[in-house]
Fold each of these.
Amino acid sequence: MDILVCIKQVPGSNKVQVDPVTGVLKRDGADSKMNPYDLFALEAAFRLREQYGGKVNVITMGPPQAKAVLYEAFAMGADEGALITDRQFGGADVLATSYTLSQGIRKFGMPDLILCGLQTTDGDTAQVGPEISEDLGIPCVCNVKKIEEVKDGAIIVDMDMPEDIERVKVAFPCLLTVEKDINEPRLPSYLRKQKTKDQPIASYILIDMEDKNPKHYGLSGSPTQVEKIFPPPMDKKHETWTGSGEELATKMQALLHEKKFIG
């Protein structure tokens, strides 16, 4: 079974600058890490490979430094990787991002199963995985909390629904987005890290894609754009009261009554 895991490099902290013109994150030079949710997708892929055989490959989209998360995935156990990178892909919203990833997946080679983390910590939309499946024309199951088995050219999974757990069987090829409680991700291996530190990575730019129209990528291909970015207003007030416990309690009660927190 060929498995492809979509991973992403995200900011390592909340101290990230935003381009005031485009409204996108300035990723160059910022501390970064692998999206935490993608670690659970990787672990799910490794466990499927251990049980049923096959390969686990990884793909990511981002600037050249995003190769770091591919090498991290190699150290964890991934077999091969691909980087989708081009300045014309920059500033993409979820629609353009998913379309670009689907084009890169077609170039890299369609797998039996695509795994994605439920969402990313820098966007939190949880939309890219389902949109990739739509672009590729394959079925998708989201919020997967358990993989039961692979049987008869299909995979059986438990999907975490708002009111209950639903078990579904979906035929290959398909895409799953996995929850963070599906497993406990393994740590990278130092020996594998040393062994794979020079492993070649496929790299795709716009001219490598089946669709070479630049209007379908990046800011040009994004129907949604950030209109304005500003820090939230700070309206905190600070007062210091002194007095006996009874006096402070009476004052607190009066304040809460004034603010209509109590009747």
Amino acid sequence: MTPMIDVIFLLLIFFVCTASFQAVEEILPTNLQLPGAVETAAPPDPDMLDLDEIVVRILWQDDQPRWRINERDYEKLADVRNVLVSIARLKNDLPVILDVDGNVPLEKVIDVYDACRQIGLRRIQFAASEKV
């Protein structure tokens, strides 16, 4: 009887150690809308429907970052994020090319990179300048 209890105890320890304790609520997708929450999304731009790539140019002017997505200027990172969200809803497999000026702080580049990753854009590349 004692060897059987030892075996059962070892099996119990094995199953406890190999089990993953993730809450099911965190795994399942949900469309939870909290009271007072408003969802805002930029309407899709007809020019963005036939894109091959997204070029995000990050400029540094007057100690402020400026963003240009496919030749359109944006003043706020939230506006850039809204445009990227609307593009990702249409085509989420587009490559995003980050073209950064040399004097832009790294923090501003990481903000755009993180926004792309959070939205679901996974093909993020950095533009390289040619040395003459």
Amino acid sequence: MFIIPVLTTSRKKIRHLLYPDPDIKIEDLKETVRYLSKLNPPRNYYHQNSMKMSARYISKKFEEYGLEPKDQPFMVGNNVYTNVLANAGPVKCSRLIVGAHYDVCGEQPGADDNASAVAGLLEIARFAKRHETELPYRVDFVAYALEEPPFFATKYMGSYVHAKLLKKSRVSVKGMICLEMIGFFTEKKNSQSYPLPFMRFFYPSTGHFIGIVSNYSSSSLATQIAKHMSVASVDVRTLRAPSLVLGIDFSDHRNYWKFGYDAVMLTDTAFYRNPHYHQRTDTIGTLDFDKMREVVKGVCWSILNMK
């Protein structure tokens, strides 16, 4: 365990930052990606049974890791879809939300989008449960249904349902971390593109980093996460921008912004890098599990040390 003393500015006391080995195993990450990406038919809104099998798998994993999973069912038309929730840390406390969607867009396996993030979510939850007594706040883990089209940007997104309930219940939320495609990395030259051409002057042209995306009001949350993730062996880049920049709000964090919560997206930048985005070629063989493990480590350390 690494212990780094840091002087706090408010009370002038020494606060120790903890970076224990999260013991994230590549085979555990692969197991989840393999299971979800090989479901046939694919886990989209049209294939009810595959969606249910995905939710059951996630729930079983939470339970296996010592957490108590709960379903959050919601109706869309005549169909029932389910968010799967679990939590660790003090019950009567403000919450940090860590979430990832488990559905796919169309008839494709979705290894990066978004089985990679679900695998990360499960391993972060296992770490949080193991270090539960060290958490200064409650961490809620949520696997969302219906992030993808045709429900994207509507009130039928699982994350909209979840965020709306938090607001209605007046829950105190420290912030939300959205895991959105965390497994595709490449050293290929000029493999990284951006929504605005001038961004190439400030960010790498090679897709070997993990991005932390926030709006301006969530800047403090993004800064804290970047600080702790930088301890891991992965290049971390932050971007703060308004939602009008294409792709900034292209995941579940958008709904927490909508209800006034700070939220960030951790991403390999999706279609700005990954040529397999929303394609049948988005398979487990395209993922870099060594880099993915470092991303997961960084999030583990973030939730343990966040103020």
Amino acid sequence: MDKLKTKIEFDAVSDNEAFARIAAAAFVLKADPLVETMEDIKTAVSEAVTNCVIHGYGNSGGRIVMEMELEKEEDAYIFSVVIEDFGKGIKDVVKAREPMYSECSEEERSGMGFTFMELFMDELTVDSTLGKGTKVCMRKKIMD
């Protein structure tokens, strides 16, 4: 195996957050990750999907696309995941990535989604366009 790829599209509803976590966990099993690494990946995916549901679509529904790739290197696997919504987009990505920042003033939100994604993954990029949506790309090295 040099590289595995998959693409999943699902409804932007909170119930599908668990589906996305399980899908990511099943996908990386080939790399035989440590339990801690698996939990890191599941948490980061969960945060990204939750952001799509709550911030991208405001709990009003839509579609989320999740693309995953697992590539073998000499001494490790590289897991990549892209989670994309086609919702309202983020006005200020730099501000949104600050710990404790949330645009949801009417709900109790911790504002830690991007912080957790950065903490649990090795790389995080966020690309967002107002009125068109947000794409979150994350990578994690899984040692053999």
